[in-house]
# Entry
Amino acid sequence: MNTNKLIAAILLLFFFGQRTEAQIHSKNYEKKIDSLILTGFGNKGEPGGVFMISRKGKTVYRKAFGKANLELDVNMTPDHVFQIGSMTKQFTAVAILMLEQQGKLKVTDPVSQYIKEYPGGDKISIHHLLTHTSGIKDFTKMKSLSTIAQKEMKPEAMVDFFKNEPVDFAPGEKFDYNNSGYVILGYIIELVSGDTYEHFIKKNIFDKAGMAHSYYASDRKVIPGRAYGYHQKEHGFVNKTVISFSVPFSSGSLMSTADDMLKWQKALNQNILLNPEETQKAYQKYTLNSGEEFTYGYGWHLKDINGIPDREHGGSIFGFKSMGVYIPSEDIYVTGFSNCDCHSPTEITRNIAKATLDEVRTTVKKP
# Structure
């Protein structure tokens, strides 16, 4: 075989390989994903959602369902911007690790090192806040929350709102999902960086990752491509309850798109934001004081799908729900957003990830 023929053969093999990879996601696969989504997002006249799947950084499925705005009869598109609720915690956790990487704090530091008067702050570490093991009262469970829900709250005032509440348990004794801990983390980010949480996230994460359509939430700013949020009542749909985003703050006040969340995942994978050592801290399981392991890292639940480890997190805030699942071994990332808190994308997103994992593994096994 002469040189030209050899090159042609190699190129043919290369392109055949590329084509096979692209064909992993067949028409039957697409129909299966459609059917999974339509179980909860099948009514075109209702608020809807966006679902996206990527494999090895390439988008293989990206579709919108239902309406982005009922009053204006605007169809949802994959480009619409959603409030992502508690998926915000991923960004807060990474921001803390960025500050640790810069030598400005350590996750082992006590809260009292930054917030001098915090009750019991010498026993509660940043690590406890990140892993929901602090025992601090979750402000979302406080009856008095309604008194501040629509007030503009400074981070210090938010911390003051719950800091004197009785603790639920001693630090490190239990895992109990907690929004207050992530509000304190946002306040620490501001104290250590000398910047606002909003600007720190934009400058150090959104801008670096190329997330041009991600924001700190606002009901007053004009946000291009905003999907409007809804509740469902007995008589039909109503606009979402208005709250001050300074209340959920760094525990749940960010907005994004499906495409931007893929950029986020790529930035994490490529160590654009953190070095591998700091990144690993977010993705590892930790233990309680008893030595018992729990399935949460820093900003991610660490679970599995059919025995295959995944990282996932959802979000819920008035008018919106969100979910993201990442399977590291196959580089599969699935996101699901809803603009009605009546439609949850959580199980649908997990089922899509499972179906995609099955499809990839079945196709790879074929001769």
Notes: Residues 5-24 have pLDDT under 50 and may be disordered. The CA atoms of residues 230 and 239 lie 5 Å apart. Residues 27-365 form a domain with the Beta-lactamase fold (CATH 3.40.710.10).
